[in-house]
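PROTEIN DESIGN WORKSHEET
SECTION A - STRUCTURE
LENGTH: 301
TOKENS:
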């Protein structure tokens, strides 16, 4: 079977994706699969360069990769691909829609506003949420243009900055607490990892620099674990995820978990969160890639 590893792409997460792709190239079982790297430099590459592969292993992140567009092209061409389908990928890319669906399913998520212009900023609603608030692109990733805003005077600039990256921007209630990530594989919760940033929050630098955030497996107290597990699995189900997705949460000092966002094509370097969690379960990165391919093929209709 000929597996193409799609990486690069045109989003703000291109560099990250190239690293994910490189790691997948290194770790994929080359005795089992014939592997070709496919670096996407422009949109058309997805159509031109995938024609002779049997499976597309997606190492893409962000817009035009994680948002369902590439999945739609592959589906149209009849090429099976890894991870969530078009609908689920698009839903999870849009944090406003993600949260709307979570809310409808009674899954706890912080209050928020979504705006398309600075005129739409509702300062009264922000006052109600209380400062600080987080302001970030609705369809963002890798913490680009993400700001913790402590006062009214800074809101407009943060929204303007976000609008440089996206057509919509979210203003979200600040959830003070500990960040965790819940990797879910085929409706099964893998070991939960804690994320400890060394700065105020998990920004770009903390995500990708060698001296960035630390992440390690944690054991939550039983009652909290049960709640987090239920929330993670319900989130996965509500957003119609398949194969794998990573659900990020913040647990407040009072022990109350909030869903922050869902990543349908999370980072895939050997030291990224999902492969690390699989490792905690005794699944090597090579086997983990195998499992992704196997279940993605099974789900592809
Ligand atoms: N409402 C919030 N409360 C507290 N921290 C937040 C909030 N929103 C974002 N953050 C911080 O910013 C980081 C990036 O935000 P996130 O919503 O995960 O977007 P991205 O898709 O860029 O990862 C989070 O990991 C967290 O550290
Ligand atoms: Mg995130």
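SECTION B - SEQUENCE
RESIDUE ASSIGNMENT:
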């Amino acid at each position: 079977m000929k597996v193409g590893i799609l990486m690069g792409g045109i989003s703000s997460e291109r560099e990250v994706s190239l690293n994910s792709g490189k790691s997948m190239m290194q770790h994929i079982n080359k005795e089992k699969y014939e592997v070709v790297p496919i670096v996407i430099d422009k949109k058309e590459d997805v159509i031109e360069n995938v024609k002779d592969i049997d499976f597309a292993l997606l190492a893409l992140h962000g817009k035009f990769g994680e948002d369902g567009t590439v999945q739609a092209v592959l589906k149209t061409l009849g090429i099976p691909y890894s991870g969530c389908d078009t609908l689920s990928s698009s839903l999870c890319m849009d944090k406003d829609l993600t949260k709307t669906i979570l809310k409808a399913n009674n899954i706890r998520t912080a209050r928020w506003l979504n705006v398309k212009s600075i005129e739409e900023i509702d300062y009264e609603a922000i006052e109600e949420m209380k400062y600080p608030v987080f302001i970030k692109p609705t369809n963002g990733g890798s913490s680009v243009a993400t700001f913790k805003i402590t006062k009214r005077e800074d809101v407009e600039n943060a929204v303007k900055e976000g609008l440089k990256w996206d057509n919509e921007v979210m203003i979200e209630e600040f959830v003070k607490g500990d960040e965790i990530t819940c990797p879910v594989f085929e409706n099964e919760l893998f070991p939960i990892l804690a994320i400890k940033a060394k700065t105020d929050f998990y920004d770009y630098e903390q995500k990708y620099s060698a001296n960035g955030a630390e992440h390690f497996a944690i054991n939550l107290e039983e009652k909290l674990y049960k709640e987090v597990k239920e929330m993670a699995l319900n989130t996965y189900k509500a957003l119609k995820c398949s194969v794998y997705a990573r659900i990020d949460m913040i647990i407040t000092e009072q022990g109350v978990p909030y869903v922050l966002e869902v990543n349908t094509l999370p980072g895939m370097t050997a030291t990224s969160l999902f492969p690390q969690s699989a490792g905690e379960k005794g699944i090597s990165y090579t086997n983990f890639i195998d499992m992704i391919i196997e279940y993605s093929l099974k789900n592809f209709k």
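SECTION C - NOTES
The longest strand covers residues 177-185.
The pocket of adenosine-5'-diphosphate (ligand 1) is lined by residues 110, 134, 136, 140-143, 146, 172-175, 179, 201-202, 248, 250, 260-261 (CB under 6 Å).
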